[in-house]
Amino acid sequence: MSMSELPEADSVSWPRTMAASNGATRERNEREILAAAERVFARHGYRGASVQAIAEAAGLPKSNVLYYMGSKRGLYVRLLERMMARWNALLDDISVEDDPADVLEAFIRSKMQLSRRHPEGSRLFAAEILGGAPFLQDYLSGELRDWVQARARIFEQWAERGLMDPVDPVWLIFLIWSATQHYADFEAQVLGITGKDELSDADVEEITTFLTRVILKGCGVRSREAEA
Amino acid sequence: MSMSELPEADSVSWPRTMAASNGATRERNEREILAAAERVFARHGYRGASVQAIAEAAGLPKSNVLYYMGSKRGLYVRLLERMMARWNALLDDISVEDDPADVLEAFIRSKMQLSRRHPEGSRLFAAEILGGAPFLQDYLSGELRDWVQARARIFEQWAERGLMDPVDPVWLIFLIWSATQHYADFEAQVLGITGKDELSDADVEEITTFLTRVILKGCGVRSREAEA
DNA sequence: AAACATCCTGACCGTTCGGTCAACAAATCA
DNA sequence: TGATTTGTTGACCGAACGGTCAGGATGTTT
Questions:
Q1: Domain range for residue A116?
Q2: Domain count along chain B
Q3: CA A98/CA B13 separation, integer angstroms
Q4: Phi, psi for residue A95 in degrees, rounded to 5
Q5: Interface touch B129/A42, C-beta < 8 Å
Q6: CATH number of the domain where residue B34 is located
Q7: Nearest CA distance, A152 vs chain B (angstrom)
Q8: What is the pLDDT of residues B108-123, one digit of tens each?
Q9: Residue B29 and residue B111 share a domain
């Protein structure tokens, strides 16, 4: 079992020709633009975001943004791909031999961390799905579906071995996704209701503990040692 | 305890003068426009939605939409108010004397029904929050906050009486909100992963049962009868 | 029929949209 | 240094934006 949270792979595709120049300027500007675009797209959705707004958020003229990114569409796709790469790195290999309690807790914890470390990316993803996933349909019914099904099979085997209740594993995965995603996507609601102006590390830890306890207990997860 | 799901209150504010005419035309057209607008706003967010697109979805010329609704902004606000009215009708009065199991199940069930009966409205609400709740901030930190706090206090009293585990009631409410909201907001993801092209009534019933069982068990909810 | 309010909509307004381009500045290579 | 790539940006394009308005269609009340 691993839950590598990659530093930022970013799979860059350089323009046609690239001299031996180190390209430091390009790297810095692209980073700035991507960060700004993630914020703007997350807040207003694909259609609602304007290149002008992204440029202003990045502190650059509009032309410069298009010089680096080519088009609004291309910029958006690139952000989605970056977010999917982060997502894919979550809990990428687990086995029936692992302890269900450990795996589920690691799952909840790492998903919570993803939402916390990349709230704008999480919201960008949410906005994309909310709008009917026009760019991600293939990913959802392909890669991600396989990912879910593989893990679902393991959960089922745990249930057969009596390590947890025989709950539908897909609904369980959705429960964990939704409960954790909520704190990024509905941040405005959470803050408004709790009266805080941001969630501290301690808050996040408390929520993580809460979710882990309720969900594990709710699924009747028993520790591996108790198997025999 | 009641969980009235109002037929559609809609709090209409008629234009200045209104002759004795029945206004059937107005009523029909407004209904069409509101339904179309809810779909378009939900899919593209406030900025991303265009009056032209709403008009086309309603099968009317753009001028006609503005004739009835005045402005894009006014139309959006009206939709939000309608959705908040539905939301407010949820579980509007519960008491410490109620059975926690009954209340929590009714809560999960009615929230799930809200997401199912008004998926576009749910997504509209989600898009609003996702974008930082520019129109709903006051509602969130006012009415809704009070709503949550009142229910939280009851949950706490139940915990004191040993009817459920002493979990943080606010996190619990968020858990229920997120888990149920998920099936409207992330419908595209749910369908893509399960391979279905829609969720049947039976699916929804199964999910509701799953959520009820896991969450109640996870919070250690005991039935009222066992109190003594 | 006359009078009146409601309903309908094409034409139009100023602004912003995504994107192109030419001209120029800066840096790197030869 | 001269040549070449890389970075920068204002001006501009056609299309779409939210919104206005005049003027005709429709319908209801006298």
A1: 84-226
A2: 2
A3: 61
A4: -135, 160
A5: no
A6: 1.10.10.60
A7: 11
A8: 999 999 999 999 999 9
A9: no
